[in-house]
Write a structure and sequence with these properties.
two-stranded antiparallel sheet, 10 helices, about 40% helix, alpha/beta, about 20% strand
Length: about 270
């Protein structure tokens, strides 16, 4: 199974719920499975975070470990999964998680992802983790998406990721965090094009280089160029807006960012 087939086969019938108050389009967000990274709602309990997500009109989520430990044997797993299932949201991805050469420790996270129906583990792997990750991704059919985390991180510039994935199977690729791309002095659309079909998932975030995060569409990122490249590379993975500002009330900033993103998608057509 190649990456494109894998991602396309798990796509929802519609990409996301419509934003409140906007005209319905045939394919909101260009047909992408638009969601949020739950770190945007880190000041809320997981149950309340889901409520905040629904305020944005979205129903897809990437969860971070502060909301749900990545272990299906955890004592709260069954109750949390029941709550998620009842909420009607889709947990498409999880992370960012560290991985080492310890295959059994990694397997715990893959077992968790399988039990939750998660398709992508967003990752910050050690270089010695890739032999086991190559094996586990193929065994479970669950992708590993390497997250760039800005200056000083293991995976800072685009070449850091390209170098480690070049000999890996198609389920090992990148989660491109566009905000951290800007922090690292690169341009998101150029990074996406360089990675091509190694782009498994994304954290859609805006930033002003050398300064701080902004509402999506109000920083240095060229949304139209990003939308063009996603169309060019036939991106089919989870597309998670992450907004770390105003953690006590992030929904208004997220909604404004989604409106800006929809305008860019519409401009590209």
């Amino acid at each position: 199974m190649n990456r494109r087939t894998f991602l396309a086969s798990t796509a929802a019938a519609t990409a996301a719920a419509f934003l409140p108050g906007t005209a319905q389009a045939a394919k909101p967000y260009g047909g992408h499975r638009m969601g949020c990274q739950s770190y945007s709602f880190r000041s809320f309990s997981f149950e309340d975070a889901i409520g905040e997500l629904k305020k944005t009109g979205l129903n897809n989520l990437e969860v971070f470990s502060g909301h749900m430990p990545p272990a299906s044997e955890h004592e709260n797993f069954a109750a949390t999964k029941k709550m998620v299932d009842a909420s009607g949201i889709n947990v498409l991805s999880f992370g960012v998680e560290n991985f080492t050469k310890d295959e059994e420790a990694s397997r715990v996270k893959f077992d968790f992802a399988k039990a939750m129906g998660i398709e992508v583990l967003t990752a910050n792997p050690m270089k010695n983790a890739f032999n086991s990750l190559d094996k586990l991704t193929q065994e479970y059919g669950i992708a590993i998406a390497i997250h760039n985390h800005g200056p000083g991180a293991k995976y800072d510039g685009v070449m850091d990721t390209l170098e480690v994935v070049k000999d890996m199977n198609p389920l090992i690729g990148a989660c491109v965090d566009t905000g951290h791309v800007i922090r690292s002095g690169e341009k998101p659309h150029e990074v996406l094009e360089a990675l091509g079909d190694r782009v498994i998932s994304m954290h859609l975030k805006d930033w002003v280089h050398g300064e701080e995060e902004q509402i999506l569409g109000e920083g240095d990122m060229d949304l139209i160029e990003v939308a063009k490249v996603l169309k060019k590379i036939n991106f089919a993975g989870p597309l998670m807006l992450e907004f770390e500002l105003f953690d006590k009330n992030p929904a208004p900033g997220i909604i404004k960012g989604l409106e800006n993103w929809q305008k860019a998608i519409d401009a590209v057509g």
